[in-house]
Design brief:
CATH architecture: Sandwich
Largest sheet: 5 strands, mixed
Strand order of the largest sheet: 4-12-11-7-8
CATH class: Mainly Beta
Oligomer: single chain
Distance between the termini: 65 Å
Number of strands: 12
Structural class: mainly beta
CATH topology: Immunoglobulin-like
């Protein structure tokens, strides 16, 4: 099995269309987000992971997502958050997992969601926590 896509989204929906065929509607795909609250704070992004199962595979798998700072090794570092989710998918088909992390943010900057199936290779998805824009006071001239 392998990961076809992993994206942070505002909204996710599924719908059936003619065929029968399924559509995944992803709205508000993003890789950065303004943090409006003062730090430290909690951030709860939604990550959609789309997985394909080859026809020759059993269809049983485990999705692991480990959130770390970019300089950390996902195998050895203490994660900011992690999720492990077993799944079953019909061989030759696709499935998805929606992962909602609860991240304790103490600094602005990038973090990574490392996604993998079983003990396979990681796919890293970046998410940057941005500070709010500062508005300049009007000048008195």
């Amino acid at each position: 099995m392998h990961i076809v896509a992993a994206l942070f989204v505002d909204e996710f929906a599924m719908r059936q269309v003619e065929g029968p065929s399924t559509r995944l509607d992803l709205t508000g795909v993003y890789f950065s987000r303004v943090i409006a609250e003062p730090l430290p704070c909690e951030l709860a992004p939604h990550l959609v992971v789309v997985i394909y199962c080859p026809p020759t595979h059993s269809g049983d798998g485990v999705l692991q997502v480990v959130f770390t700072n970019p300089e950390d090794d996902p195998l050895t570092a203490k994660p900011l958050a992690q999720n492990v989710s077993p799944f079953r998918v019909e061989p030759g088909k696709f499935t998805y997992r929606l992962v909602r992390a609860e991240l304790h943010i103490t600094r602005y900057g990038q973090l990574l969601a490392h996604c993998r199936i079983g003990l396979g290779p990681y796919t890293a998805v970046p998410l940057t926590a941005l500070p709010p824009e500062r508005s300049e006071p009007p000048s008195s001239t």
